[in-house]
Structure formats: C-alpha cells, structure tokens
Amino acid sequence: MPTVYEVGKQYPDPECPERPLPMSRHETSPAALQRTGTNQRPNPCCFCWCCCCSCSWNEDRERAWRASRETKLETIPNCEACSKPTTEEVKGWAQSFDKLMKNPAGRNVFREFLRTEYSEENMLFWLACEELKSECNKQSIEEKARVIYEDYISILSPKEVSLDSRVREGINRKMQEPSTHTFDDAQLQIYTLMHRDSFPRFLNSAIYKSLAQSVSRSSSES
User: Fold this and answer.
1) What long-range pairs does 191-200 form, CB within 8 A, spacing at least 24?
2) What is the pLDDT along the chain (222 residues), one digit of tens a residue?
3) 46, CA 20 to 30 Å: which among 123, 155, 177, 220?
4) pTM
5) How far is 13 from 49, CA to CA, in rounded Å?
C-alpha cells in the first residue's frame, strides 16, 4: 500500500477526496425516490451535478463533511501561551498584518477568527513551518517535514491547505531531501492568502472589535 507521501507525489493537485462531491446526473436521493415512486421521473434537482445545487441531499452530505472535519480539528491545541495584549498592540494589528503575525496574542485571536471561517489550518500550517525553521537536527527536520506534509499538503488530510500546482510540485521534489526550507514557497502563499483574504474580514469581525473594546475599557479603568 502506498504511503500518504507517495500518493501525494502521484496526484499532486486534485481536490480532497474527503469533501463530499455533488451528486452526479445519474444519482438520486432516497427521499426523491420515495416521493416519485419507482415508475416516475425523480425531481430534476436530484439529477444536478453542479456545485450550486441546493437540494437537501447535497446539503446533508456537506454538513456531514463539515462535522467530520471539525471533529478532527478539535484535537489541535487551542492556542499559544501569551500575555494579554495591550491597547496599543491591538490597535497596531489593524495597521499591519505583519505586527499581528509577530505577536502570539495576535496570532491567537486571528486563529480564533479563522476557526469560524473553517480555515484554521492556514494558521496551523504557518506555525508548523516556523517551528520547522527553528530545528537544527537533521533527523528531526526530516520527521517534522513529513508530519507537515501529511497534515497540510497531502490530499488525504482534512487539514489540507490550498496551494497551486507549481508549489505542490516543488514540495514533492524537495521532500526527497527535506530541509528547513522545504515549505518556504507554500508558507509564503498561505501567508499572502491570509493577509489578502481573511485579514480584512477579521478587522471587521465581532471577535476583533470585542477585543479592542475590552482592552480599551481595561486601560481606561486602570
């Protein structure tokens, strides 16, 4: 049986097989069969095969996939150890994504927001890459690199991050001899994705606004 890494090399960029696929044009839901009877044509919705299908059968499959994914993410440690952020720090995060990512408290609150958008794996992958860079032992580097590959690059993982084919192919080549820089391109791509896509929504989220109000109130009281 091929390993997770070998499967990744053979199929560098397909969609994750664990995510439920929309029903094919030849599939029908059990509910549809009951409604129509054995000799009648089923509801046309149950023949749809596009991603925008809104039939209840596809919705049930989507909910089941999300529940499975959330269960697997629940085993991940909640946050990094850090002190309570100051008012200046929280305000500074709104001005610079780099400041947010360099601050443990900032990463924690941003990670909490990412969890609400089902994209927490982006932060987890970035943190794992940072940890790999600090490693010096060759054997430990190889072990951690393979764990990162299996957790965030493999198409078999529920925590797979979104990378383009060029980056994936580069990782597969570098995994022949893993180093602390094996995932540099992927880490930059995910960092850019979080900056451009998730960060603007984070600044407008209830999570960030509530924290900003809380630290401001605590500062004024003291």
Assistant:
1) 191/101, 191/126, 193/122, 193/162, 194/97, 194/110, 194/114, 194/122, 194/123, 194/126, 195/97, 198/110, 198/113, 198/114, 198/117, 198/119, 198/122, 199/97, 199/100, 199/110
2) 555 555 455 445 444 444 444 444 444 445 444 444 444 444 444 333 334 444 444 555 555 545 544 544 444 456 677 778 999 999 999 999 999 999 999 999 999 999 999 999 999 999 999 999 999 999 999 999 999 999 999 999 999 999 999 999 999 999 999 999 999 999 999 999 999 999 999 999 999 999 999 998 887 766
3) 155
4) 0.65
5) 21
